[in-house]
From TrEMBL:
The active site is at residues 51, 58. It catalyses: 7-aminomethyl-7-carbaguanine + 2 NADP(+) = 7-cyano-7-carbaguanine + 2 NADPH + 3 H(+). Substrate binds at residues 73-75, 92-93. This is NADPH-dependent 7-cyano-7-deazaguanine reductase. It comes from Hyphobacterium marinum. The gene is queF. InterPro entries: GTP-CH-I_C/QueF, NADPH_dep_7-cyano-7-deazaG_red, QueF, QueF_type1. Catalyzes the NADPH-dependent reduction of 7-cyano-7-deazaguanine (preQ0) to 7-aminomethyl-7-deazaguanine (preQ1). Pathway: tRNA modification; tRNA-queuosine biosynthesis. It holds the Pfam family QueF. GO terms for molecular function: preQ1 synthase activity.
Length: 153
């Protein structure tokens, strides 16, 4: 019998190649194991994508916070999804908000926010933030803890 709360995991515990693009990447989910509200945080301090104009690499420190509903994202599939951006050319804003919107579509969280802390391009750091609405009351949501860019000073 198939449990409707369980999705067969195809990447966990097996070798899995990085998708050629974020659109081709598979995000897997599992049932939320907790019936009380809580926060899940993923930190990706070495996120990489490509500048859509020059093709040069762009780097960011991403912090993804979400409060799950029925589903949580399976972490290996999230890592592979984020890795698929390494050969993907897009602006900082599109990468950051696209990751958030894809997670919202796949896992339907109660609340989600992402901070994209991008390293300078053309001498200007660009930070991009996305949030689905007001955070629910009663859940501890710590600051993201990423300092503003200070350069070498």
């Amino acid at each position: 019998m198939t449990d409707p709360n369980y999705q067969e995991l195809r990447q966990l515990g097996d070798s899995a190649a990085t998708a050629k693009s974020p659109d081709e990447a598979v995000l897997e989910r599992v049932a939320n194991p907790c019936d009380a509200p809580y926060l899940i945080r993923f930190t990706c301090p070495e996120f990489t994508s490509l500048c859509p104009v020059t093709g040069q690499p762009d780097f960011a420190h991403l912090v993804i916070d979400y409060i799950p509903n029925k589903w949580i994202v399976e972490s290996k599939s999230l890592k592979l999804f984020l890795t698929s951006f390494r050969n993907h050319g897009d602006f900082h804003e599109a990468c950051t908000t696209g990751i958030a919107q894809r997670l919202v579509r796949e896992i339907e969280p109660a609340w989600l926010r992402i901070g994209g802390y991008w390293y300078p391009r053309g001498g200007i750091p660009i930070d991009v933030f996305f949030q689905t609405g007001d955070a629910p009351q009663g859940v501890w949501i710590p600051e993201q803890g990423v300092a503003p860019y200070r350069g070498r000073g």
